[in-house]
Amino acid sequence: MDEKRRLPRKYLIIFSRVFERTLGKLLGYLSDLSESGGMIISEEPMQVGTTVSLRLDLPDPKIFHAHNLQLEARVARCDPDLSPAFYDIGIEFLDVTPEKKILIQRMMEVYEFHREDEPSSGTSPI
Q1: For a Cys staple, 64 with which of 18, 58, 90, 120, CB 3.0–4.6 Å?
Q2: CB-CB contact of 67 with 82 (8 Å)
Q3: Cα(88)–Cα(55) distance, rounded to whole angstroms?
Q4: Which of these ranges, 58-67, 89-98, 107-116, has the smallest mean pLDDT?
């Protein structure tokens, strides 16, 4: 599959719950995020091309000064996850205002998964 992402994605250490805003239905959990979209791990597939009103729970209201982030998004892809019980739903945000962008950037900054750096000396540790 060709990589069409223009902005780097950040894998998150906390999976925020993602709801369909108008019905309040839990869609799944946000596993990665960029300023323009993300990926939801879901038990149910979603139709590619569908527009959906989302509510993303923010993990710590003290950090974000809000309990959730509400966005319109388009389902860009829906693929089976490595685990056959789940789907990977790629979403593209449609209405990122400057205020919402700040929340997204803060979420990526605070909850980005960091791998431990490998030795940089160029010599083997053995």
Answers
A1: 58
A2: no
A3: 18
A4: 107-116
| Structure tokens that stand for 92 in this block | 């593209």
| CA angle in degrees (0–180, nearest 5) for 22-23-25 | 125
| Chain-centre distance for alpha carbon 126 | 39
Size of the chain, expressed as the number of residues it contains: 126
Q: What's the DSSP call for residue 103?
A: H
Helix and strand numbers (H, E) in the chain are 2, 6
* Residue 43 structure tokens: 């038990």
- The CA distance from 46 to 96, in Å, is 22
CB atoms within 10 A of CB 116: 4
Strands 68-80 and 87-93: antiparallel
| pTM for the model | 0.75
The answer to whether 36 and 93 are in contact (CB under 8 A) is yes
Q: What is the pLDDT of residue 119?
A: 42
**Residue 4 falls in which region: left (phi positive, over 0), alpha (psi -120 to 50) or beta:** alpha
